[in-house]
Amino acid sequence: MAITREDVLHVARLARLEIPEEEIGRVQEQLSAILEAVGKVSELDLSDVEPTSHPLDVVNAWAEDEPRPSLPQDEALANAPDPEDGHFRVPAVG
User: Fold this and answer.
1) pLDDT tens-digit profile of 33-60?
2) In this structure, are residues 67 and 76 in contact, taking their beta carbons and an 8 Å threshold?
3) Max Cα separation, the chain?
4) What are the Cα distances from residue 84, in Å, to 43, 75, 78?
5) Would you call 35 helix, strand, or coil by DSSP?
6) Quick check: is 51 in a domain?
7) How far apart are CA 31 and CA 9, in angstroms?
8) Is residue 29 within 8 Å of residue 5, measured between CB atoms?
9) How many domains does the chain fold into?
């Protein structure tokens, strides 16, 4: 599928990109090459390929959620510029 100049300008507008006039042709060629490469994948028989969310097997991606002692309140507030009643004091938002 060939990308037109108008396609490039449309995609740039959607992505809020400003493409200089002298680069539109190069971007047009690059986007056409990308679509051609993706099109080749659609020619493959992938009916027996299971969908995945990651290209590699992910094992132990998350550590076990085990309770442990937290930072004592006085240490947590040690560098607070203006603590109040055991809490961080922050400026009002509004």
Assistant:
1) 999 999 998 899 988 988 888 888 877 7
2) no
3) 66
4) 65, 14, 12
5) helix
6) no
7) 12
8) no
9) 1
